[in-house]
Amino acid sequence: ASRGPRRGSDAMADRDAALRELLGEIGDGGGSDPSTSAASARVDGDDAAGGDATMMHHLNLRDLTLDASSAANAIDGLDLDLVKYADHDVVRDIMRSDVTDLKQRASSVEAKLQSVELESIKDYVAESDNLVALHGQIEGCDAILREMESLLLGFKNDLGKISSEIKSLQDQSSTMGTKLRNRKAAEYSLGAFVEDVALAPDLVLAIADGEVSEAYLRRLVELDRHLEFMRTDATASASAAARDVAPELERLRAKAAAKSREFLMDKIYALRNPKTNVQVMQQNVLLKHKYLVTFMRMNAPEVLTEVRVAYVETMSRVLRQAMAGYVASSGALRRDVAGRSDLLGANASAIAPGRDNVSGSSVFELGTRGDVLRELETTPPIIVHHVEASGAKYPREALFRSSHKLLMDTATFEYLFCAEFWGGSGGGAGAANDVFADIFAGPIVVMEDHLRESTAGLGVGPGAPGAGFGGDVDVVGVALMLRVNTEHQHIMTRRRVPCLDKYLDGVNMTLWPKFKNAHDAHVRSVIDAAAAAARSNAFSADDASVAAHHVARRYADLTRAMTSISSGAGEVVETQIESAMERLRTAVIDFLTRASARFRRRSRGVAFLVNNFERVRAAIAETSPIASVTGGAVADPMESAAYGYFTAELARLSGEYVEETLRERFGGMISFVERAEAA
């Protein structure tokens, strides 16, 4: 199919080659340069067409002598080529050359062109069958293309119809989606309404006939949801469906409130039984059913008030009896450490020559009594019946710590229980605090009465107001009780349970006057001893002991005890005790100074003061501070004002002792030197 066009292309190429040969021969005959001719042969078709008139102007056909037939043949074959290349320099030169030579060359070119033409015709004839076959193939292709065009047009029409159908389906889908959303919204609203209004038969049966249990609590939650919906939704409560179900709903509410009351009342009255573990029942029974209180708070407040009153009465009586029984039985374990006559200045004048003053000082020592301040939060209260079997006795501060530890633990548990049981789920902290305050009013009264009774005789020494009612001056015990109470306040603060703040503050207000009275009794005793020492005669013998006086030893022990107790107790306790001890120190120093004046020889009086002051300073240096439960830093006893005072006095007295000793042995020489220096 492609041979015909290729043969035509070959014929055209042969014709162009013949023309180039003609032009080459003419160029050679005219004497022109072949390279110039070849270069000049490349001209633009538009330039050849535009230069036709110019070429014809230069041709002088009148000078040609060609015969008519030869001229006609020559012009017939070359006319187009001459016109095409008229402006070419080579053609222009040839046209201007000799006519005879041009004729010959034209005849030769014509002959060659005819030969090429004949060959081209033969080629086309030889390829005629192929051209016919090609024509048939082209027509077949046209038919196929027409069929494909028809199919594509059909597809186009079908696609147009499908597009219309798709658009229609989209419109229908959008409409259906809108309807679905509307129906879902209606279903949600109506479904929620029906669910909140309609009462399921199993709910009615469970509330009316079921026993109070965890499953019953779940039914109460569902019933409370229905009641809340009817109570808060005005539109729903005004509907016909709500009016139909309201009577049945009210009956269920009353039935649930009655069952809740009955259950809680039974459990509350069970707390009154002897030997009942109240805290276990509160934790394992009441707290598991605390939703009963929540339900009654929202739907039966008058019933809840009745239940709360019963609980307050029960727990107040149970705890009041428990605390009263404990403090009464623990009172039998009390051991009095100091009596009315165990004063710091008692028997102060008992300084006999030739022997030391060896009056005991255990009343003023801290000793093992300081253990009451260690592990205050973890040490459990004293179990009375166990201790009674062993016959052990305890000082007042140990019993004070034990009873108040029991009070704190009980109050903490009850406060947290009330906060969760009565104040949870909307009850509020105020309701829980009110319940706790009503419950613990009785136990607090018991503890206040016990505190007043147990400290009634504190600070009442001989000759003091109220001495006829008995009492003691155990100032160390009172100081320990103050420190214990301060630590208890810290413990309750750390527990974040403020329910006993007012009571513990009241304990401080009760104990501080007792401490002052007891301490003042000791100060008065020392002042009286100093006055008696001033009235006494001087020692007549030199063998009177210069050892530490028993008043100084007692004061040293008391100072060490007070320093241990006050260190780390807080600014209030430290300041109060330090102020009290400063007054006592002044009285003791006055007594010792007056006692030292009774020695006939001044050197022995100074030695007496040195021994007493050294005993006090050594006691302060040996003090072991007791850390607070808060973990705060404690003061160093060697940095206290008392330690600094006695250290300075010892330095002064040591110098005075040396001077007095030298004056006794070398008095004349010293007097001579002094007179000489004065002169």
Helix-and-strand structural type: mainly alpha
The proportion of strand residues reads under 5%
Could you give a short account of the major beta sheet?
Answer: none
What best-fitting shape do the alpha-carbon axes yield? Answer: elongated
Topology order in helix (H) and strand (E) letters: HHHHHHHHHHHHHHHHHHHHHHHHH
Tell me the number of helical segments per DSSP (H or I, 4 or more residues long). 25
Low-confidence stretches: 1-5, 25-72, 350-360, 461-470
Mean pLDDT: 80
DSSP summary, beta strand count: 0
Give the termini separation: 163 Å
Task: Write structural notes for this entry.
With 679 residues, the protein is an all-alpha fold. It contains 25 helices and no strands. Helix 21 runs parallel beside helix 23.
